[in-house]
Design a protein that fits this description.
Elements (H helix, E strand, L loop, with lengths): L1 H9 L2 H28 L29 H15 L2 H20 L12 H63 L3 H24 L1
Helix pairs in contact: 3-5
Length: about 210
């Protein structure tokens, strides 16, 4: 270290700057190599411990679930739930059931596909009900979440309004106290009149003397 200091002390300022620049370049190259090495490294699937500085990758395999957007699915469920809660859906479902029953009772047996007691129709309606109930519950949960957020925002807004009202109340009280101590025009006029009367009285007393 002493030899390096002596050598640096014997060098000129230009050589020192060049040496510092060379060291900075070497440090940048080392950092770039480390970053490239980290990018190339991948956690092995042989039971070794995963690196914490690397993003977790999906498990490769045949049973990997497809990626889906919960927001888009939630919006679709809300649309379906809104349609299920309208009179249009009831009318269309009634029309389909009537056509189904008439098709399988009035037409000849060769054209029928679901004879009495309409087992296939019962299966379709049960499937429709089994899918409609979770969709309606999902839409209700999303609406509850929105209502909760709106309630929190309303509560925060009401707290701010209460704080602003209290602040304005204190300011109005302070202004009233300040105005109570300020001399009004009538008070100044009465004081001036009393002073004038006192001066006149003193002048009269001085004249009599």
């Amino acid at each position: 270290m002493d030899a390096d200091r002596k050598r640096q002390g014997g060098e000129g300022p230009g050589q020192r700057i060049q040496g510092e620049l060379r060291e900075l370049r070497q440090l940048r190259e080392l950092r770039a190599r480390e970053q490239r090495g980290r990018r190339e490294e991948r956690p092995s699937a042989t039971g070794s411990r995963a690196r914490l500085d690397q993003p977790r990758t999906g498990r490769p395999g045949l049973f990997r679930l497809p990626a889906w957007d919960p927001e888009a699915f939630g919006k679709l469920s809300e649309r379906i739930a809104r349609f299920l809660g309208t009179g249009r859906f009831i009318v269309w479902m009634t029309v389909v059931i009537i056509v189904w029953v008439l098709w399988n009772t009035v037409l000849p047996e060769s054209a029928r596909f679901d004879d009495y007691p309409f087992i296939f129709l019962t299966l379709v309606l049960s499937l429709q009900a089994s899918y409609a109930a979770p969709l309606i519950l999902l839409a209700q949960n999303r609406q509850d979440d929105r209502d909760r957020v709106n309630m929190e925002q309303d509560r925060a807004r009401s707290d701010r309004n209460i704080a602003d009202t209290e602040y304005l109340t204190r300011e109005v009280a302070a202004l009233r106290q300040g105005l109570g101590e300020v001399a009004t025009r009538d008070f100044v006029r009465s004081e001036l009149q009393s002073l004038l009367k006192e001066l006149d009285e003193r002048r009269e007393s001085a004249d009599t003397l």
